[in-house]
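Ligand-bound model needed. fe (ii) ion.
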Amino acid sequence: MTTSPIQLGDVPNEHGYRPFTLGGFRFERDEHFVHVQWPTGRHVTAAEPFLKAMMRDVAWNFFYGTVNFDSVIGTLNHYGNVDLFAGRFNEEYRKAELDHSENFPHDEIKETFQAILNDWVNEDFDPFAAPMETGSAYGEKSGNNSRAVTRTRVAAKRMVGLPDDEPLRSDESGYPVNRAFLDVDLDEPVVEVVKGYENEVSAFNFFGYLSRSDVTWNPSVVSVCRDSLMCPTTEEFILPIIHGNDRVEWFLQLSDEIIWEVEDRESGKPRAKVVMKAGDCAAMPADIRHQGYSPKRSMLLVWENNSPDLPGMIARGEAPTVPVTF
Ligand SMILES: [Fe+2]
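Prediction:
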């Protein structure tokens, strides 16, 4: 007699939520908590932060480097395949040999995470929203929110403003100005283009564009120039993940304030607390992990070098972990 493995979306438990397995990992949720088990240990965490972190991991396609859901669970992107780990970047878990890591094809882990979100996010809860703009993540299973959990980042095909851009720039777009940005001037710049260059020259009101962002901690892409990606985003409350960089990442604080907790990427030991006010610019090193706190909804421009060669060059010591040494 053979025992069949637990399939994606096995029968719901007494709270209405299905359990899920991926390799040696098993995920379950109840009214308040998510329980994760692996061959050498187990972890319990509150449902709301877990779902908000998993939502970012899916929407960002596992992002650059490490996405720590908390100090124990997370993913490490190898661009094509992804490690799911427990305790891998936690010194004490490693010492106690409770850590565990498994590698999965990109599509397999993404499909599993998407299935968990489809089942565990209730109708009233939007994991992308600021706390004051969503209902509760807790309680017995109650409907689903497929519109929210299948949302992906807005990515311009060209610079915003040029033909074929993502037209997130007027009330007709369906994106009203957020409550926090009602004082932002929405006038668009006047650009007089020499005949023949209408397809190549434009400008747009960047603050006006960002004031219509309906999500938090989910960068859009407004310009692509080879590997240079300009990724602005609006932030409120706490970044739902602790991001472990695999390359230098530039931050330009466009409005208000974000407080960053910066730790060593491997051990989690504190390295710096960075308070960024409007106009401040910082380069986050390639060997850190960080989590941001935005007391009021703020605008942040993240500048990424998307080159696939960078993580290897940094790991081999061929490129520095900081952009400049003083
Ligand atoms: Fe980062």
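DSSP finds six helices and 16 strands in the chain.
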